[in-house]
Amino acid sequence: MTTKASEPSRGGLTNACRPRKRRLPLIKAMPKNVLLALDEALRALPHRSPAAVADVHKRFALLDKYEVTLRQTINHAKRLHAHGTAEDPPSHPPSDRGAAGSETVEAYRRRMNAIGEALSVVFAGMETPDSDLWGRGMYLKLVGRLYDVLDSEDLTLGDLKALSGMIYEQRRAHTHALEVERRIHAAHQNNADKGRDEVDPPTSRELPARLGDMVRQIYGVNLHEPAASISTATVRERH
Amino acid sequence: MANGRTSREIKRIRNEILVVLKMLYPAALQADQLLRSLLAVFPALEWDQFRRDLAYLCEKGYLQRVVPDTENDEKLTPWRKRWFRLTSSGMEVADRCIGDPALEE
Fold it and tell me: Residue B67 domain-assigned?
């Protein structure tokens, strides 16, 4: 049971440890799929340490209840990562600099690895490497922005809001484009199937060479020519 | 020695470019962002040197330029604004699956 913030202190709980009721409207306003994507990205940041992962999860679980903001969570994850939570040896070539230089390079690679993992969670989980989406300007811009945000020292809520909006819009536009493409393809397929079954309209046919055939095609009846004209034609042929 | 840089330094920078892009694969990164990022490790790295390394890695087939649909004329795009990603060959070199004497220290 929690005590309301407006109530006077009754001995047990002090103002410092009492949960505040303030909630960020941004968290509520962000689309659920974006929150999930960011959640996944955050899980990827310090993923090498199970304790750090559990801590981030716990903080995320508290989002709805307490004042822990997304920004604080991200900064916390980044701080954990910066302090070196890596337990696995890096798979890339070791740097052969001096001790201080080597540490710098290793820390740098750890940070890049974390950013890469976050990016892959947000994007590559959905897209294959050969997807044409990677060549789209909007997507590249989004990747660049996310990279900048994750590589920066601090993250503002404004950044997050813009980022989440971009991700959401991009995904929605992409889904819409795919749906339109699918419908167009289906419509073309239907037309092709119908065209095969139906008889072509008379206008699209070529006119037959003989007059009788032409009349039969247009009027659906045989042409009965006058006997005189037939005899004339016969005479002409004989001559 | 090339332009005041030792061959060892050149190799190290080129290796680091491959390693960074490997971690971001399959996403591409803008040259400017890549340089800014590498400055954390190589504070003395200059743009001209970096651009030369990028061009070299592209010619070797380890890097690939990504031209977004928003670029009208890809030749007019300044180098800093160009996007690069690792190719499959670059991935193999970055992973040390295949060796390249020009990049091994």
Answer: yes
- B103: in domain: no
Q: Looking at this predicted complex, what is its ipTM?
A: 0.80
Contacts B70 to A, Cβ<8 Å: 136-138
Q: Is residue B59 part of a domain?
A: yes
Per-residue pLDDT of chain B (105 residues; tens, 9 = 90+): 556 678 888 899 999 999 989 888 888 889 998 998 888 888 888 999 999 999 999 999 999 998 887 777 878 889 998 999 999 999 899 888 888 888 876
In a domain, B104, yes or no: no
Q: What's the per-residue H, E or C state across B9-50? A: HHHHHHHHHHHHHHHHCCCCEEHHHHHHHHCCCCCCCCHHHH
- What is the model's pTM? 0.53
In B, which residues are within 8 Å of A92 by CB distance? Answer: 19, 22, 94-96
CATH number at residue B53: 1.10.10.10
DSSP A207: P
| Cβ-nearest to A143 among B16, B23, B27 | B27
